[in-house]
UniProtKB/TrEMBL annotation:
High-level lineage: Bacteria, Pseudomonadati, Pseudomonadota, Alphaproteobacteria, Sphingomonadales
Origin species: Sandaracinobacter neustonicus
Alphabetized InterPro entries for the sequence: ApaG-like, ApaG_domain, ApaG_sf, Uncharacterised_ApaG
Pfam families associated with the record: DUF525
Domain ApaG per the UniProt entry, residue ranges: 8-132
Protein name: Protein ApaG
Length: 135
């Protein structure tokens, strides 16, 4: 299934795969409102159980305005991922421009209690109204 994802980053055996999708049904371009959904898969290729503790997203709109979004876990969960296992979730991002860019990191703790960070690969948010890549 890796072919379903447009971006991937691997840190210490943990792969993060991303697939964004423009949500035309939730967007209202005439009123300056565009929405994307993104599917994230976190795959544990390490030899230890890991837990996703927090996240930090850097979201840049089409005007270059940056917004940092930080918080505990993802979609209300702090999933524990066994070696060889994976965790999937879908979330969304509204913007006031027809394109943007997202990149970030997940804070993780391994089975030994060691905290480390895992890269979330950068990806473009492009609507049919976009005039090019945002990054």
């Amino acid at each position: 299934m890796p072919g379903l994802f447009s971006a991937v980053a691997t840190t210490e055996g943990i792969s993060v795969r991303v697939q964004p999708r423009y949500a035309a049904d939730q967007s209202d371009p005439a009123n300056g409102h565009w929405v994307w959904h993104y599917h994230i898969r976190v795959e544990n290729g390490s030899g230890m159980e890991v837990q996703l503790i927090d996240r930090h997203w850097i979201i840049t709109d089409g005007h270059g305005v940056r917004k940092d979004v930080m918080g505990e876990g993802v979609v209300g969960e702090q999933p524990v991922i066994a070696p060889g296992g994976s965790y999937d979730y879908v979330s969304g991002c509204p913007l006031a421009t027809p394109m943007g860019y997202m990149v970030g990191r997940f804070g993780m703790v391994d089975g030994g209690g060691r905290r480390f960070e895992v890269a979330i690969p950068g990806f473009d948010l492009l609507s049919p109204d976009a005039k090019g890549a945002a990054n």
